[in-house]
Design brief:
Elements lengths: L37 E6 L5 H17 L2 E6 L4 H14 L3 E4 L8 H9 L4 E4 L11 E5 L1 H16 L8 E5 L7 H19 L3 E2 L7 H4 L6 H15 L7 E3 L3 H13 L11 E2 L6 H8 L5 E4 L2 H16 L21 E4 L2 E4 L3 H6 L11
Parallel strand pairs: 1-2, 1-3, 3-4, 4-5, 5-11, 6-7, 6-8, 8-9
Antiparallel strand pairs: 10-12
């Protein structure tokens, strides 16, 4: 499979096929028509700043290799994404890069991709339950959770024996495979403090199934936080919130501020996050959200583009984890990047000096 389209690299005059735009998607064509072919890119949603950056970055990097691209967004609707991928297959794309909305909904359409001998790269979210995914490119997802937990442990002084403190736990979407990795990475470090009662979850909601947030939705997180505050806190206060994603963090913050948090008498808790979204970085600078985990999606996009180019030119893609990511059918060879913890002390060095944001954007 990996060599079946190597001849495309030498082709000239490859015609760009235009993909009909679905009601919920977006199409982007780019690249030098004299080179390697067309690559379909299926992203989850345009509602998140993060995925807009991913899409643009993947297109840019593939263009640098001379490929045409077809970029679509499924707007968090699994059926829409399946239809979009089917359309890409019918248009004859040479490879697919897919960030799944529902990681178990793509089995049928990926059988179609396999029948058409189209290689598939699972982007950031591992596609489950199918043999028809060739590679996976992402960040070290358990490390994301560990960085969030370490931040809470440090800020509360848990290693020094301080406590008890009240903490509430949030997790990502139940249909995203990354959710489990983030949560398990964090809980591996937090569980000892729950066991010895330095950390107390007043809501009692500690199992992953009880703390997920469908589609990583901020308003959904706000609603749950409102309910937790009303049902479990009263005169007690929240000292920390494990939040796996910035959009969820903002939702949690809105609920806390509506409950009177953010004053000298009732300070905001330690609140983690992920993705270094602009609203959350501004919140961190303002002293509200405490931390986020920065994943430079420009690097992720570059790794995906490198991988696609290697496949289509008959090379063996670079991987650094062959056995750790099992999708229920097979272990998917993966290339993992490392995330970085960001707070008020280092955002300028990491994000501004690193060229991710300008100083003007953060004002």
């Amino acid at each position: 499979m990996r060599n079946r389209r190597a001849f495309l690299a030498a082709m000239t005059g490859v015609a760009s096929l235009s993909l009909s735009l679905s009601a919920c998607g977006e199409t982007s064509s780019s690249g030098d028509k004299t080179k390697g072919g067309t690559i379909g890119i299926a992203m989850p949603t345009q509602a998140s700043e993060r995925w807009l950056t991913d899409g643009k970055s993947v297109v840019k990097d593939l263009k640098g290799y001379g490929y045409q691209t077809q970029l679509v967004y499924g707007q968090d609707n699994p059926k829409t994404q399946v239809s979009q991928i089917q359309a890409l297959i019918k248009q004859g794309v040479d490879a697919l890069i897919i960030a799944a909305i529902d990681n178990k909904s793509l089995n049928g359409v990926l059988e179609e991709a396999a029948a058409a001998k189209i290689p598939v790269i699972s982007y950031d979210r591992l596609i489950l339950g199918t043999a028809n995914v060739d590679y996976y490119v992402s960040f070290d997802n358990e490390q994301v959770g560990r960085l969030q937990a370490l931040y809470i442990i440090d800020k509360l002084g848990l290693e020094d024996g301080k406590g008890p403190f009240n903490i509430e736990l949030f997790a990502g979407s139940p249909d995203d495979n990354n959710t489990q990795y983030f949560f398990e990475g964090a809980m591996h470090l937090l569980q000892p403090y729950l066991d010895n009662k330095q950390l107390i979850v007043q809501s009692g909601e500690t199992a992953l199934k009880d703390v997920t947030t469908l589609r990583w939705d901020g308003p959904t997180a706000r609603k749950r936080m409102n309910e937790v505050l009303a049902d479990s806190y009263g005169s007690k206060k929240v000292d920390a919130v494990l939040s796996p994603y910035d959009g969820i963090s903002i939702g949690v913050l809105n609920a806390l501020k509506a409950d009177g948090y953010g004053s000298n008498s009732k300070p905001l808790p330690v609140i983690t996050g992920q993705d270094a979204e602009l609203a959350s970085i501004k919140s961190i600078i303002a002293g509200e959200q405490s931390q986020t985990v920065y994943k430079d999606v420009r690097q992720l996009a570059s790794a995906a583009a490198d991988m696609a180019n290697d496949i289509l030119t008959g090379k063996t893609p670079k991987v650094n984890n062959r056995l750790g990511y099992k999708n229920g059918v097979k272990a998917v060879s993966a290339y993992l990047l490392q995330p970085t913890s960001v707070d008020k002390s280092n955002y300028n060095y990491v994000l501004v000096a690193g060229g991710y944001y300008t100083a003007a954007e953060l004002k």
